[in-house]
Amino acid sequence: MPECDDEPWEYTLYIPHDPRAVAIGRRTLRDILTTHHLPALLEPAELLASELLSNAIRHTKGPAALKLRRSGEALRLGAWDSDPTPPEASVAPPPAAEAGRGLRIVRAYADDWGWFQINPGYGGASGKYVWCELGATPS
Predict the structure, then answer these.
(1) Contact of 90 with 139, CB cutoff 8 Å
(2) Rg for the chain (alpha carbons), in Å?
């Protein structure tokens, strides 16, 4: 078996507005990365996907989606939600806070991250897409 696949691939998992869906997203991500022979990315990708999906569920009222895309050496993880409001990455929670650290974790563990607003278009979808990338060999 090859160490990792050279061909690009992409998966999208649509989830309902349900906190239990975050665990389903993690399990699905684990299955995908295992199938594509990327065990070194399992732990960091699982952490990042959990944070992105948790934010999408916690801060919106509608459905969400987890998207995984492998192209070249990069794995891009992203979460779509129906709220176009920018993520609050610059607001630091108090040190003892149990919530509000999600995007700080994403910034700390991902090689790159960002977001963009989605305007209603094909299919009427709108909202925002928050993404992050991991290289082939995380540090």
Answers:
(1) no
(2) 15
133 vs 70: CA distance, rounded Å: 10
Separation between Cα atoms, residue 9 and residue 111, nearest integer Å? 19
What's the CA gap between 68 and 99, in Å, rounded? 25
Per-residue model confidence as pLDDT tens for the chain (139 residues) = 444 457 899 999 999 999 999 999 999 999 999 999 999 999 999 999 999 999 999 988 989 999 999 998 899 999 999 999 888 754 555 555 555 567 888 989 999 999 999 887 666 678 999 999 998 544 4
Supply 69's token pair.
């895309």
| The amino acid at 130 | V
- Please report how the helices 102-109 and 42-58 are oriented relative to each other, as an axis angle in degrees rounded to 10: 150
Closest CA to 67 of 105, 111, 115: 115
Instruction: Give CA–CA dist 129/101, Å, rounded.
Output: 18
